[in-house]
Records
---
Amino acid sequence: MKNNFKKQTGQAMITLIFFTVIASTIIAAAVSVLFSNILSTSTAEAGLVAYYVAESGAEEGLLQLLRNPEYAESVSPTEIFEVGDGSATTQLNSNGSFTVTSWKEIE
């Protein structure tokens, strides 16, 4: 009986190391996927915020133009509007027709 146990010493340790390496690999892959998803989500959210801020700036410029048709000549053609957690710069140009351009930089 003693001879049988002496031949199997270390077998449990090799099995434990094997499963530890497999578990570590799976955990590292899961963390990598999680980090990638978090980064992707925050980038998409920043893009949506920029889109809505720019849209609000354009609507504000159009509203000012509808209220006062001489708005582009009477006021400086570039205005900055604070919208939520960002700001939109709106430009009104009059050269026979009016153009409203609005943008917001993503931080």
---
Amino acid sequence: MALYLDSIGRYGDSPFLYPIYGLGGLPEAFSRLCAIHGGTYMLNTSVDEVLMEGDKVVGIRSGDQTAKAPLVICDPSYAPDKCKPLGKVIRAICLLNHTIPHTNNAQSIQIILPAKQLGKKTDTYISMVSYSHLICANGFYVAIVSGTVETDSPEAEIQPALDLLGDILDMFVSVSTISEPLDAEVEKMGLWITSSYDASSHFESASEEILSMYEKIVGEKLDLNIEPDDEDEY
């Protein structure tokens, strides 16, 4: 609730920010900004190996090509041997042809089901977006239900959330392992590994981790209040 109240009026009438065309719009915007500052953005490129010389990172290998770098920033899937599992997250992507019942026909919505209400240790999340964000055809809605797995029946754990959605046209369920770096010694190698995405739908924990990692690497906090010299660049 504190996060919600702090966000109201920050960037408009809504406390929520939704990228048009979905989260895929974020790397697209980053690639343009990367090019402006002299970076190279390689699309559809796999990383086959993180290259080491002694106990220091020197770059990555993709097929027969290598890219040299003094440090590498990645998620756990690129360095599984340097990470430890924390648990699992279940996500159900649901296609609807109606808004979520009892939400006043909201075209986008975030719902959090408290852990105590469900008899769990962790909250369950529902996030729904629609054609207004240009992520699906007009008349359809995409709802994502996510939660931390606590039993041997993960789908049963999110059933109370699925019941709130009404009729579901189609559903795609996945259970993934969430991991974090083994210890701070990994960072001394020049290998900066983020944690896996948790079950939350508002990206608060991911944002806090990015800001913390930026400060550790650069040596100062990221100031998001600095205005660019040329707004057209952004």
---
Amino acid sequence: MATAKDMLQSADWKLEKHMPVIEAQDLARKAEAINISVSVGKEIPHPNTTEHHIAWIAAYFLPKGEKFTYLLARSELSCHGASTLGPNTSTIYTQPSVTLNFKSEKSGTIIAISQCNIHGLWEASREITVE
């Protein structure tokens, strides 16, 4: 029987256009904002068309020693060139990128998941130390 983790794909973001890329500081201080950015297609641009696009990006945080993640943000990327005239007729295209900040008293792992409407779910993670 397949599970959710069986659907998550991963690869080197420098070689795979679907991979989320997490940019964040490696070291943060307790109770201070941790700024992160998650984007898709940093090295190899992902198509952003009506037919092939990133539908959403979600960012989670798993504190060290805990079992469950915290959803930091989920961003729906809704404009992919469609209009009442048909596919790819609009000049409005949402770029697959999200920037946010959060605070934590613990070190842990940022986990990002993106959804390509054709190629499914893609996952990346990054450790952060909080002192």
---
Amino acid sequence: MLKCLNAKTIKWRGFTLAEVMVSIFIIVLMSGIIFANYRVGGRQFALQRSANKLAQDIRRTQQMAMGAVECPVANCCGVATQTIPPRYGVQFINSSPDYYSYIIFADCNDNGKYEPSSNVVETINFEGGVRISDLSIGDPPTSKTQLYITFKPPDPTIDMRTPADETSTIARIQLINPNNQTKTITVNSAGLIEIQ
């Protein structure tokens, strides 16, 4: 009887060609699904990181203004020595090619807008194909092509305006990635920043 069992186990030791092919097909199929979702997930994470970075940079600009930080740019506001500008702000543009980035600036003439006389503190690019898809101010929202958010000390004065001097108490910046997924960053006049 023992001899009979050994003969059976020896007979069924290997895999058939069909079993090997099915196993390889399943592994390739699962790898393809995981790789496809990885790329989609990477774009989704790039959008989330860009939205969080934007909110963080708006807060950083606010802290620079409220903390009366000296301008980090040489010859800021036309003064050779280090100076504290009246305001710091962030400029957003919703037109090509500028909608892939935003600018943190020192508002030297205290008008709440970015102008050539303003000093660019930093230009930040969005990552992974993320761009601005809509800028709006007001409630109900009105779409605009440019938007400035500036912060003025000592009282935390927050201005949200357009080049045409339209002002509002609320601003929305909508980001979009190549998969048409969106994130909206809302800033209100109290300085509250919300990501949706």
